[in-house]
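Please, structure for the following, as tokens.
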Amino acid sequence: MKPHTPLRLFLILLLSASVVPQSSFAAARPNFLLIFTDDHGYGDVSTYHPSDVRTPHLDRLAAEGMLFSRMRANCTVCSPSRAALLTGRYPDRVGVPGVIRTHPDDSWGFFDPKTPTLANELKKAGYHTALVGKWHLGLDSPNTPNERGFDFFHGFLGDMMDSYTTHLRHGHNYMRRNAEVIEPQGHATDLFSDWAADYIRKRSANPNQPFFLYLAYNAPHFPIEPPAEWLAKVKQRAPDLDAKRAANVALIEHLDHSIGRVLSALKASGQEKNTVVVFTSDNGGSLPHAQNNDPWRGGKQDHYDGGLRVPFMARWPAQIPPGSHCDYAGLNFDLYPTFLELAGIKPAADLDALSLVPVLKGGTITTSRDLYFVRREGGAAYGGKSYEAILRGQWKLLQNNPWSPHELYNLENDPLERTNLATSNRKLANDLAAALRKHIQRGGATPWQPSGQ
């Protein structure tokens, strides 16, 4: 055999170094499965307290990982929460202070095309990125999922469905497979679960490329339409349950069963151990539709904690001990820097979110920050105006509509927000109001309507 020259030996060593660590690093990085439900109240996950709703698959997910008890959504309605989740920035900073709707005259946001999404960042780092389910951040270019970092999209572009079985919104079809218009048959929850499970199975054929799957259900958002067999089960078990409540319980139990099917597919694919699974919701449940946010006051659209507190759990068998609990008070968008850090990516310096990695690894987060909430809405009740809330430690200052005065609560002494201290503690109320104004000014730097609208 011809001996290696020094140059040949150097090239062999260089080639080996460039190939082996890359594949081992890719295998070490976790996959991410983010399950995001719609209008899912804190009280509608039975792991938190005894309930008339049964969610055994979510309860098991929490038992196998870490259950968070003090997490909040970034907004009390859909689009702003999703924009914050995918950018790590407060929603008005990315042009989405309110709901993006299919009718421009009632749309109160425009997702800033210049802001990178979580999918953009993970894709650049070599992840395969997918969204299955609800998008709700734009119907057209440049704000379709494939243009915002997702390699694969199989789901619904719009805000809500007129029916879970027709999948239409105002008579229009917003169901897509990437850019292709599709007309699938079946209940939306079943479809999204089937598509997610299929994606997971296919990714097992590419073990050296980690994946990020954002599974965004539209359940249990109204209209409350559980499959007939699921409603029958609930009625048989609890014949005296209020009809509206029974339908909601059935819709959530069907959703829980469907999430269980996705988790079973993950396990069967052999990818469970090194997959970070997170479950949470975009905001609290809708009280007019008999959803449950107990024990918190209020619901969807409210800045009281019933509108903001959401179920939140994380499972990562490779790292998180089963039966873990966390009382850190964070926001859903904290997942953005969390996933980036776990993927070996340094988050941008201008994020508002904080990484949850310290608590996932059994430590604590000592960085203090105010938590800011904003919602803009139209119609006679809101007039196109915004209303805000801010948390600083145990103190919460809020408006619950654009016309009402500020309310101040001490959440340590009054977690159910019953005693308004805005008048008796005027100095603190003024200090927090000044901090709110800074956030409002900062958000005003980003347009929330498309150019020429």
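The radius of gyration is 23 Å. Residues 371-443 form a domain with the Arylsulfatase, C-terminal domain fold (CATH 3.30.1120.10).
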